[in-house]
Amino acid sequence: MIEKRGVSFMEKPKKHEVEDALMHIVDRVERVEESQKESATRLNDLERNEALQDKDIKNLTVSLDKIQENTLWLRRTVTNAMITG
Asked: Known InterPro entries for this protein (predicted)?
């Protein structure tokens, strides 16, 4: 620290210190960008999986509806057979 007329000034940083600090910042920015890309990829994968699961759920719902209709028809047939039999 340098003092002039009672006022303190920080020393001017050396060129290599500035370069080192800049390289550190650049490295951190690159890591953040890479992390952001990975997060975007994971988000896309999750969205794709969600769409596939929604499709599977719709197919299962249709299948359950058909099973319910067939079960109702079968119960009526068995009930009629018992009544007339």
From this structure: Haemolysin_XhlA (IPR019715)
